[in-house]
Amino acid sequence: MAMSEAVTDAGWIDVAVCEEVVTKPIKLLLAMDGTDQSRAAFDWIADDILLRDRQTYVQVLHAFDPSKKDLHRQLRSDAIRSDVESKLTGAVSGKRFGLNWTLRDGKKPADIICEATKALPADYVCIGFHGRKGPKGDKHLIASNVFEVMCRSLCSVVVFKDTEAELLPIKRPTKFVVSITLHHAATKAFLDCLRLSKAGDEIHCVYVKSYMESVESDYTVKLRRKYSSFFESL
After folding, report:
1. Total-model pTM
2. Which of 41, 149, 196, 217 has minimal Cβ neighbours within 10 Å of its Cβ?
3. pLDDT(206) > 60
């Protein structure tokens, strides 16, 4: 399968640029609605990311509607703020986190999240797989607001689906699996894995060959060379 140089080199990023990306301090935006999945995201940030990287900053965003008065305690705006502020204050310096409690005022949560991501500006936005109302029908279908954030956000989106503590990558080696191609988005995904990883973690790069690639092609040779160069530079 022959491809032009312009296409095969489209996702190449210079090693020096990669090093600049992975060493830059991280800014996280956490969309916190009080659900178990958003609280799992918060635990990962507070109990792992912030503790092992002293330059990381997190802004916790909560969009609230004051007319909602019959919510369960863990979903109430004041309770969420109290829980978040208490845990972060006891863990890190006040300079390393911020609380952004925003009145919904008729706006969609996705709009508020995307605006906050741009204003920070965030490197990653962390969000739960489902919203407060939970899954609508198929539990494996992602919430519409989450899907919209994934499509429109100007930064990478980390979606939390699991809530069990033992499944969270906290204080243990983490295994990343990243789908690789020569596309810029795939390269960014790999750099995200590098940036979020710590000593002892594993990053597995997977390329799924097409039925036309029964033998090594020019494309796969370039791809293998690209990621071999990345790992050698590390």
Report:
1. 0.87
2. 217
3. yes
80-126 pLDDT per residue, tens: 999 999 999 998 999 999 999 999 998 999 999 999 999 999 999 99
Q: How far apart are CA 120 and CA 58, in angstroms?
A: 10
Beta strand 57-64 pairing with 97-103: parallel
> Could you tell me the two tokens for 34?
């009080």
Question: DSSP string covering 79-143, please?
Answer: HHHHHHHHHHHHHS-GGGEEEEEEE-TT--HHHHHHHHHHHTT-SEEEEESS-TT--SS-TTSPP
Task: Count the neighbouring beta carbons within 10 Å of the beta carbon of residue 203.
Answer: 18
Q: Cα dihedral sign for 73, 129, 176, 20?
A: negative
| pLDDT at residue 4, rounded to an integer | 32
CATH of span 5-233: 3.40.50.620
Strands 202-206 and 124-128: unpaired
**pLDDT tens digit string along 156-174?**
999 999 888 888 889 899 9
Is residue 203 within 8 A of residue 193, CB to CB? The reply is yes
Selection from 20-29, 90-99, 133-142 with the highest mean pLDDT? 90-99
Q: How far apart are CA 74 and CA 29, in angstroms?
A: 20
